[in-house]
Amino acid sequence: MTPVPDRAHVPATGPAEGPAAIDDQRLEDLISAAHMAMPVELSSLLRRGAALLGLDNALIYLVDLQQRHLVPLDERHPTLPVEGTLAGWAYRTVSLRVTDADDGVLVWAPLVDGSERLGVLAVRSASLDGARLRRSRMLADLLAMAITSKRAYSDWLVARTRTAPMSLHAEMLRAFLPPRTIGNSECVSTAVLEPAYELGGDAFDHAVVKNVLHTAIFDAMGHDLSSGLTTSVAMAGARNARRSGADLPDLVGTVDEALAQWLPDQFCTGVLCELDVSTGVLRWINCGHPPPLLIREERVIDHALAGGPQPPMGLPFRLAPVGRRVRETVLRPGDRVLLYTDGVTEARSEGGEEFGLDRFTDFIIRSTASGQHPAEVLRLLIHAILDHQHSDLRDDATILLFEWRPRGHRTDQTRTSATSTGRPVRRERSQASAT
């Protein structure tokens, strides 16, 4: 495997070595076409872009809902597994993979919108130089933005990433979910949840308001349409209060009132957090839920985020008015906080063995120590939980992880994060097929 220079050190190439200069008018026309193209036209738009940039051909692959497969947007091509393929390596590591093909060079470029991994772009070229490598990245960035803007209204794009029918209550909950991963160079929040197509009452939420990262996890009683409705009302109440500028106690109070008014026989546990990214101050309220876990320097800090029990959301108005207590601590640079539902630790094997809290935290620590990105850590972890229970979860399993890494604090792992501008590149000799 031969290293190829990264984005910051790609040598410049003159007209005699590299591809032809890009015509500004044609580039402007391409960007305008990307804005107006229908989702089903993205493949033809991509071919047009590849030709403009002096590349032979290109193909979009989107990751499926469970992040096991890379599904081509062009339905004539086969699906690729995330595990054990060059395309999967590019997706998992958010890095370029370059390989020799029979008739030229094949570049696998990650499709990333901010911190959210969407899939990969396969770019074929007769030869490779610094200019073509940069243009492959440019094309991937343009397509990532186009896909993100169009998938909100394209059922076809959504359907391409599904491998099984989805239940009605899962469809309802998924309509409320934010992207799996959000963040920037200072903080990142990422989440996973299963069973992907049969969700009951679990959900997560994360958002950024100025310099504050808001995160939340919800777990409604039951595993049917009513539990999904309960969680949906809780999420809507929290967002409505947050977008109105409510403080954390008032935000939870809004959820309490909404559930008491519209679903008086239902309740929902959860943890809602606010992280001030400029100071590291973390504030949270735990509503009858397993306490968050603090991971610092590759170990769990026992009881760091524990606190006295508070009733689930929706219950205070049935019992007696309860003032929600806000807890507060200051994170250190590099700290990671884990929110999870009990379906994670209580997942049982055929022999009755629980996945357990120790196995859960050990997996996170080992994967982090090996240099995995936060989103990849959770992808691997949720698959390990599914494998432990032979993909037959008896309860929803949801995990949300957020990390604080302020300016001036960078590790080797964070330097090549999904938000980094200098993605590493690897080159291999292979008989791989692609576009």
What can you tell me about this protein's structure?
This protein has 435 residues and is α+β, with helices and mostly antiparallel strands. The chain folds into two domains: 166 residues, GAF domain (Beta-Lactamase, 2-Layer Sandwich); 230 residues, Phosphatase 2c, domain 1 (4-Layer Sandwich), CATH 3.60.40.10. It contains 13 helices and 19 strands. A hairpin with a 2-residue loop joins β10 and β11. It is elongated. The chain starts with a strand and ends in a 6-residue tail after the last strand.
The CATH topology of the largest domain: Phosphatase 2c, domain 1
Number of domains: 2
* Average pLDDT taken over every residue: 86
State the share of residues found in helices, binned by percent.
25-40%
Number of helices: 13
The helix-and-strand class reads alpha+beta
N→C terminal distance: 22 Å
Characterize the main sheet: 8 strands, mixed
CATH superfamily of the largest domain: PPM-type phosphatase domain
Second rung of CATH, namely the architecture of the largest domain: 4-Layer Sandwich
Strand order of the largest sheet: 1-19-5-6-7-2-3-4
List the helices and strands and how they pair.
Blueprint: E1 2-3, H1 24-36, H2 42-52, E2 57-63, E3 69-72, E4 80-81, H3 86-93, E5 96-101, E6 104-113, E7 116-125, H4 130-151, H5 155-160, H6 168-176, E8 181-183, E9 187-194, E10 202-209, E11 212-220, H7 225-243, H8 248-262, E12 268-276, E13 281-287, E14 293-296, E15 299-300, H9 316-319, E16 327-330, E17 336-340, H10 342-345, H11 357-369, H12 374-388, E18 397-404, H13 412-415, E19 425-429
Parallel strand pairs: 5-19
Antiparallel strand pairs: 1-19, 2-3, 2-7, 3-4, 5-6, 6-7, 8-9, 9-18, 10-11, 11-12, 12-13, 13-16, 14-15, 14-17, 17-18
Helix pairs in contact: 1-2, 2-4, 6-7, 7-8, 11-12
